[in-house]
Amino acid sequence: MVLTLAAAVASAVLELSLTAQQRSGDGLEAGWVSGLAGLALAVPGGLLVHRVPRNAVAWILCASGLHWALDGLAVAYVAWAIAHSPTPAGAEYAYWVYQRVGAGLLFSLPLLLVFYPDGRLPRGWWRWAAVGSLAATAVLPLTLLFVPARVADAMDDGPAPAAAQGLSVDLLHLPLPDAAWEVLLRIGYAALPVSLLIPFAIVFRRYRAAADRARMRWLLWAGVVDVLVMLSALVLPQSVLGAGLFVAIAVTGFAIAMGVLQPGLLDIDNLLGRTVLYGTLAVVVVLVDAVVLALVTTSLGTRGAALAGLLVVLLVYGPLRSRLWLLVQRLVLGERHDPYRIISGLAEQLERSGSPERQLLAVARSVAEAFRSPYVAVEVHRSGGEALLAEFGRAAGPTQTLPITYRDETVGRLILAAGTYRTALSPRDERLLADVVRQAAAAARSSYLAAELQVSRERLVGAREEERRRVRRDLHDGLGPALGGVGLRIDTARNLLTRAPERADQVLRQAREDVSTALADVRRLVHDLRPPALDDIGLAGAVEQLAERLRAPGLTTRVSATLPADLPAAVEVAAYRIVAEALTNVTKHAGAAHCTVTLTAGADELVIEVRDDGSGIAPGTPSGVGLVSLRERADELGGRCEIICPDGGGTVIRAHVPLAPPTLG
């Protein structure tokens, strides 16, 4: 960077030492433009070397900046030497650097394109394509180092400027015939535009890759500015073209540094959009003005034509700006420039989508279109522990996960390709994304709950019929024959009573045993329908009795209950079954030393908590039948059940059961 600064300052000093009269007609470019261009590349290059010294882009910028500055110093020295000495010392070497070594500047652009932004060549066969394109680009600069001046002048733009006619550029020689040099020059000129296709294809490929898109937008912005500068060269006077070149190179260096170091520091989407908008407007205004002047100058004169052009521009500017701004926002931001359109479109898609799977797919598609993401996935948790997943696009790189919350509960997650939108979303974008996700969560949750309700109803009907069938079977196959057998024994005892009393007594004893067995079956049936302990000693006592019966060796179970006296029967049965299943799991699987059962009735719900200090549940373990039944019993009454494994170990099963049935509306 020091060498670049010294070369730029020296070229500026040499330029200032020449008067306008002395420089006029020498046909040489202004050296200060190249000197400033070199500084515009060396400054961001030096910053990158300081921050990311292993990134090849930093060193390419520094080398390109030094090259530009030396090129500017060479042409400035040639102009100064021609003006001040009839036999300029070193002018030939300076002119050779300017004419032949300066051609190496053609190599810097494709070199930057293939290494930006991480300083590495692309992978796979793209790497070999990049190396081949760089080799093709180097043909022309290398040929110009050795080609004789007569051959180069014949194939290029003609002889050197008049002031430099006496300066030779044939300082390096290779013994080749002129025909061979002509072939090499033709190959070099032909390969130059073709060899740029591969670097631009690499840039496009990296732009499409989610990980690099934010950085590539900075390069895209620099490209837009460069195109606008080139278009301005068609209408601006020759005297300001050097300033335009400096602006283009300075913007490129700044954009590359921002893209490598801080791609999210500025709102590149807004900057890119406004650059495209006002640049396009400027081009259109100039074209409209030129057309109007060409059409009406003859009839209205120069002054009238200028006024007519101004009037047309004023009439066209407002509507054109509005339409262009909408188009630019759609191209740069995607559909998220119009939040109402996204929300209304999503609502329409959700209405047309019948199943939860299709609704989640509609959400994924809306988010992908709004935020220009190549991959979006929406995942919603189900009560059974499994997840419902809908994907749009293909994940080609790292992803970013955002939680989906509904009524202060995390019901799923949103997965997007990382880096596809701004590194830091604007507050407006964050609100839009939150609204889309909230609407999606509500719709998906409602559809899923409706589907679950239908499944639950079918399950309840099936369970009820199965229970009836079981009771009928138990009564028909168990209690019925048992009672029939008792009746036969009683008849037998009556017949034996007069002639064999002892035998009759034995038969009656057997009948009594059969009655006891039948009574046990009846009690079992009654217990399956509703545990009798709930009616005898209440829910708290029944749970204490249950804890005592299910206590394992080495396990201490404590029951704490704060309950009203008039709990609904369905709530009592559900709570009893939940505690029974939870304590069974603790006894069989937890290996715990302490277990606490807490029953707390609030204003509108009963909270059941079973906490142990056992081994807990390993992450990724699928829910077994017991854990699923816990959730189902809570869901049947409109409640919920959550299973938590704290960091310190153990398991917490917490169920919330409403004390009153849920109502619609």
From TrEMBL:
Its main location: membrane. GO terms for molecular function: phosphorelay sensor kinase activity; protein dimerization activity. CDD domains: HATPase_UhpB-NarQ-NarX-like. It is a multi-pass membrane protein. Residues 570-661 form the Histidine kinase/HSP90-like ATPase domain. The keyword Transmembrane applies. It comes from Dactylosporangium matsuzakiense. This is Histidine kinase/HSP90-like ATPase domain-containing protein. Keywords: Cell membrane, Kinase, Membrane, Transferase, Transmembrane, Transmembrane helix, Two-component regulatory system.
